[in-house]
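Re: How this chain folds, sequence and tokenised backbone to follow

Filed under: protein folding, tokenised backbone structure, sequence and structure records.

Contents: The amino acid chain and a row of whole-number tokens, matched residue for residue.

Body of memo: The sequence and its backbone structure tokens, given next.
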Amino acid sequence: MIEQILAAIDLRFIFLVFVGAFAGLIVGAMPGLSVTMATAILVSVTFTWAVNDAMALMMGVYVVGVFSGAISAILINIPGAPGSVATTLDGFPMTMKGQAKKALRVATFYSFFGTMFGLIMLALLAKPVTKIALQFSPMDYFLLALFGLTTVGSLTSKNFLKGLISAALGVIISLIGIDPIMGTPRFTFGSMRLQAGISLIAALIGLFGFSEILIQIGQRSLEPIAGKLGKEKVSFRELMRHIPLSIQASLIGTFIGALPGTGGPVAALIAYDQAKKTVRKPEVPFGEGAVEGIVASESANNACIGGALIPMLTLAVPGDAVTAVLLSAMYVHGLRPGPLLFTQTPDL
């Protein structure tokens, strides 16, 4: 019986997924290195590989890379991935209280839960969700963007003016580059390098990473943050207590992931905002080390993986930057993503 099971398992495939997962763990946890960059490099590396081997490696990098961005977000207040921005709001305060180990365990558990939820939804609801996403008009995308900006009010309720200034600066930074409608340069000041716009990773490192470095340098006591990991244990019952909130956030992440051009950062922030509205009595106020904030953020940005794969596989329309790279990899290996993919290569 054991021999038959081992014969049915593709150990080579599992090994390549593990290698990709290990690489994604390193890339995602290091601020400045993006999962998109890693998968783009792998497209050229796996050019001559079999399609299953290439997909195994890239999916391992993709899934674990999205999760591991929470590691640096929690420990040093610098998001390793764009989708982990919301995790810094409560993850780092927990670290400063000596609860880093608890925060990491919660992030790991609910990242796994969100990923599995998104992939199950991919299997069950690919066609219905894709039909909904296809019905989104430019006005609907405008309203979604407007809704994202309105969340600034609830996320920065304690100091609304600072939040409004930050949101305005974010909009101004996003305007730099080529106008997508007129095709003319905006705020480039004659520089060719600015025509591509400001990289999201560069902006995150500059706005979150550099500011945190200055804060740490400015403190008189430079006690290492790693010394505050803590020894607090998290029971399985305590982890399971937040399953309803995780399901809510995972639903948001899956749906937003299926909308082309959105992705993990949007899903995580909206799920975080909804958690603030629906969780009536958190253990700690949001923004001061609430476990519920980590649960919502990590569930949503990881559920986005399955959601983003839905339009990519069924319509050949990428849901985010990483699935755009995966789409190109599938074309390189002779596949044609779209409705016929499920009939021509159901084994894949």
In short: Residues 249 and 343 are 32 Å apart (CA to CA).
